[in-house]
Amino acid sequence: MSTKNMKRILVTGATGQIGSELTVELRKKYGGENVIAAGHRRKPSEKLLSTGPFEYVDVTQKDSVEKVVEKYDIDTIYHLAAVLSAVGEQKPQLAWNVNMNGLYNILEVAREHNMIRVFWPSSIAVFGPETPRVKTPQDTVLIPTTMYGVTKVAGELLCNYYFIRFGLDVRCVRYPGIISSETPPGGGTTDYAVEMFYEAIKKKRYTCFVREDTVLPMMYMPDCIKAAIDLMEADPSKIKHHVGYNVTGMSFSAGELAAEIKKHIPEFECEYKPDFRQKIADSWPMSIDDSVAREEWGWKPDYDLASMTKDMIEKLTRRFAEGRL
Ligand code: AKB
């Protein structure tokens, strides 16, 4: 089905790190009135409120989702509302409830309303200590050791089930850590890569919660948005996997990121005090093989460590000067 058929889009988790920027991009593409932002806890930004409709939705309550879907005659959902890995380890019951029951409600409502398509982000957290950590393949061992990872594996299986059993066109990528300058992430293991930029601009120093030699796959926000929209627009005849595409932008160690930031801010100092999140990071891949996404729907990232760092510093420096950081 082509994008012309997508008329009314609901974005859950629209106040979050990815949602806040993806919603604005979707509104540019499909028109502000056609993209309904849904949040739950975080206050929506002025930008989100001024560019289109906003609704409070609790994805763990099916009727809360249903009400908005019916009010706006939704036919496409980007379901981003989730509890991330670090909070998920502190509150595993909450992570299961929000991530699993939330996804189940979205899929059920999408099925009942014959929706065109659903996007759901999976994560590199589907992998675990037994998975090959370098150039992790598309199809490999999925035995995560975090509750977040468990919900992502179960979520992929559930999405696949809805595709096979009900013909619901659910599509999903496995995101690595996402680096962005608009809305900070909350509760993830890869958050240090974003915090390091904010603290470098604000205080010229940062205490990193993973070791200097910790290498993880990452992606810059423009590529993250591109991955979601490109996959959703991909010709159905081309995509074979549907659910759980490996995608990546770059891989670097925490120390390499600090050194790259230092090229722009020579006074910047970073120290390393690993906490419980180190164990999570150590269970995830260091780099990702995303050749299947490249072959099936033409995935190709635009940013590497140097270009992402330059852009992040320019954007955050401007926001800091304007008193918006
Ligand atoms: C997290 O760190 O929990 C997320 C992720 C990699 O899915 N950013």
Produce a short descriptive summary.
Helices cover 44% and strands 15% of the residues. With 325 residues, it is of the alpha/beta class.
Q: What topology, given as strand order, has the largest sheet?
A: 3-2-1-4-5-7
Q: What does the main sheet amount to?
A: 6 strands, parallel
Please give the count of helices: 12
Counted up, domains total: 2
What series of H and E elements makes up the topology?
A: EHEHEHEHHEEHEEEHEEHEEHEHHH
CATH classification, class level of the largest domain = Alpha Beta
Write down the Rg.
19 Å
Number of strands: 14
- CATH-assigned homologous superfamily of the largest domain: NAD(P)-binding Rossmann-like Domain
Q: From the 3D structure, determine the CATH topology of the largest domain.
A: Rossmann fold
Structural class: alpha/beta
Q: Strand share of the residues?
A: 15-25%
Overall pLDDT score: 96
What small ligands are held by the chains? 2-amino-3-ketobutyric acid
Given the C-alpha coordinates, what overall shape results?
globular
Helical content stands at 40-55%
List unreliable stretches of 5+ residues.
Answer: none
Distance between the termini: 41 Å
Characterise this structure:
The protein has 12 helices and 14 strands. Helix 9 (254-264) packs across helix 12. The chain has a 6-stranded parallel sheet, with helices on both faces. The chain is of the alpha/beta class and 325 residues long. The protein folds into 2 domains: 3-178 and 219-246, NAD(P)-binding Rossmann-like Domain (Rossmann fold, 3-Layer(aba) Sandwich), CATH 3.40.50.720; 180-217 and 250-286 and 304-321, UDP-galactose 4-epimerase, domain 1 (Alpha-Beta Complex), CATH 3.90.25.10. It has helices at 17-30, 46-50, 62-72, 85-90, 92-112, 147-166, 192-202, 221-233, 254-264, 277-282, 291-297, 305-321, and strands at 9-12, 35-39, 54-56, 76-79, 117-119, 122-123, 170-171, 173-175, 177-179, 205-208, 215-220, 245-246, 250-253, 269-272. The termini are far apart. The mean pLDDT is 96. The protein binds 2-amino-3-ketobutyric acid.
